[in-house]
Design a protein that fits this description.
Elements (H helix, E strand, L loop, with lengths): L1 H20 L3 E2 L6 H16 L3 H8 L18 H4 L1 H8 L9 E12 L6 E10 L10 E8 L9 E4 L4
Antiparallel strand pairs: 1-2, 2-3, 3-4, 4-5
Amino acid sequence: MNKILLTLLLSAIFNFATAQSRSNDIPTSKLPAEVKAVLEQYVTILRTSADIDQCAEKFLEVAGAGLVNENASGLRQDVPRFSLKKDFNNVKFYADPIKITRVNLSVSNGDGYGWSAIKGKKYKIWIEKANKANGRPAPITILVPEGHESIRLPKVVNIGSL
């Protein structure tokens, strides 16, 4: 009896959390072209880099907020070793070309540290696996900066889910 009640309670909590997280979803067709271009650029970097060092070097161009150091001159030390490496190794499991399954729009009041901190519209974009039997889509988050003195282009701000 206790197991049944616990299962029902956990199911209700999961359903509530899922419903809440979808409240800010937008149609995939409403994803701004500039954001989609950065997403495609990131996936291309992952697919075409010879190794993780080359990938990290190329990724710096589109990385932002907490993924880069305070002056945006390089990636934070742990990014290539962990989250970027995970995406680099696993991108082969995702559809090519990418297929966007879901977009969630929120607003950030600030991501990152020091000069590289940015705020603005945040797009959490899920991309489909090549074979759906291998798991669920995974998100990549891109932020469109607002009000920063020099960072104007969308930046990838959250990775490591692929």
